[in-house]
Amino acid sequence: MKNIFLILSITTFLTGFSQKKIVKFKMTQYISYCGGAKPSPEIVTKLNAPVPYANKTLIYVSDKNKIDSTVTNAKGVLNIKLAYGTYKFFEPWKYYKQIPYGEIESNIKMDCLVLEWAKPDMQITVGKKIEYDEYKLLYPICSYRFPCLINKHLPQ
Fold first, then answer.
1. Quick one: how far is CA 37 from the chain centroid?
2. Interior/surface letters 72-104, b for 16+ CB within 10 angstroms, e for the rest
3. Which helix (H) or strand (E) holds 9?
4. Cα separation of 111 and 107, whole Å?
5. Nearest to 133, CA basis, from 48, 31, 32, 25
6. Which residues, listed in sequence order, are joined to residue 20 by a DSSP beta bridge?
7. Contact status, residue 126 vs residue 85, Cβ threshold 8 Å
8. What is the Cβ-side half-sphere exposure of residue 30, based on CA atoms within 13 angstroms?
9. Along the chain (156 residues), what's the average pLDDT of each consecutive run of 10 residues?
10. Burial 24-33 (b: 16+ CB within 10 A, else e)
11. Structural domains of the chain, with CATH
């Protein structure tokens, strides 16, 4: 009987420290206008409408330096179970330190790119409440707007 009580006490004690919460929210993004001519009212309306961040992979790093990944669903909903702590989310090109948007390395300021790689796209803190910063995930931005380009090929 004492052993059963001891096992139940230890289990209850350990589950109290390994609390997890389900993080679920819809992620959206906006389309960038990359054309050169002034957009029509229809295009402006479309640009102002949110688009689901659907079927996208995000890599996250916990404050304990544990790394994992997740994928949003077809409606752009992020739905994961996280232990208490702070998590930084990155798009894969940032986490794997790749050059984005099909650019070539010779057209990139590498010191600028190193800073871009270090910036999380989103941060979530899981505690009694779930807090997250305004995420910065964008529909693939116009390549000439990427801040680390040496020669920006502006639209004609």
1. 31
2. beeebebebebeeeebbbbbeebbeeeebeebe
3. helix 2-17
4. 12
5. 25
6. 83
7. yes
8. 12
9. 48 57 86 81 86 92 96 94 94 92 86 94 90 69 80 62
10. eeebebebee
11. 20-145 (2.60.40)
